[in-house]
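[step 3/7] fold_predict: job queued, chain A
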Amino acid sequence: MYSRRRIWSFIIVAVLAASFPCGNLFAQQAAKIFVGEAINIHSEILGEDRTLYIYTPQGYSSTEDRYPVLYMLDGGEHFVHVSGIIHYLSGIGHIPQMIMVAIPNTRRTHDFTPTYNEEFPTSGGGEKFLNFLENEFIPYIDQTYRTQPYRILAGHSLTGTFTVYTLLTKPDLFGGYISISPSIGWDDGVMVKRAKSFFQKQARFNKFFYLTLGDEGEWKFSFFKDLTDTIRRTRPQDFNWKFVHMKDESHVSIPHKSVYDGLELLYKDWAVPDGVAAGGLESILNHYRQLTDKFGYTVSPSEIYLNILGYEFLNIRDLEEALSIFAYNIKLYPNSANVYDSYGEALERDSQLEKALENYQIAYNKGKENSDPNENIYRQNYERVKKYLEE
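[step 4/7] structure written:
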């Protein structure tokens, strides 16, 4: 059993000014904007109830698409600003749309420390929390939401240490790891010692690891140098990693920039380059085949992207390429009304009026079924071509 509640981010107030000489205000309207929902679940492993904050991408409820998942630790502190990063970067096509799951803390020192340290009596619960993550948390998300088999784990400070611990202990649990100014010196640098043993055994290691440190003193930097020197010496094949010493950031200010830069680095090849797009459908599909190989699941171009691209070729009068792109969009998204309407328009431009009418009719019918806001446009296109053919 679980409960849900919306997470409200802020309120937008629209102020309407009357056309009076003094510009008196006569009305206000407030619209609440929410960024996600909070879900309470019970963990048998931890022996307690835990709250999860869930962000789903725009359009999630109206599609059948599946999405990669970012798991953000220290969820209470980072849910709003990290969901904003995802919303923005995916909106401009730099990264895929994704689900984010954040988990607020209950016993931070206990849950995220990999070993017991007598200076911290509650420490040493990292193994149990990782067990919860692997056997309760992730399965729950995969069963409840439409996920792809690619996950990213991100944490800051002590949860950054846990991120490194997870990389070294259960590396296949995630494809990408973003560790932000972790407490690598914990328990006399125990994670650095484990890393030396771990990386010596990895001839190939197809993972992404982004590690950052702010301006935090030479003592802390020495542990990072030891860790990064170890990785450079062993150099596992296929290991995509980077360490960035952000000297202009403090321990407190570094999380936002680290997540932003880390996601951009992980998905640096995501956007279709202009030269590839100009090559047409086959060139674009080859780009997405490469992304599929990289991330381990089928990556397809979005309906919106293909639709825009189809019209670009239509506008330069390359009808053959436009038709192939619109037809492929129908293959990928057969339940969308808009893909049939766009294909119908290209067919009409190519003087294939009977076939255009067939697609306009499908668009109109699906628009009615789905209460599509463009239903009236689909109807007008259908009736226009139908009337022309009957004359």
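[step 5/7] annotate
Residues 302-390 form a domain with the Serine Threonine Protein Phosphatase 5, Tetratricopeptide repeat fold (CATH 1.25.40.10).
The chain has two domains: 35-266, 302-390.
exit 0
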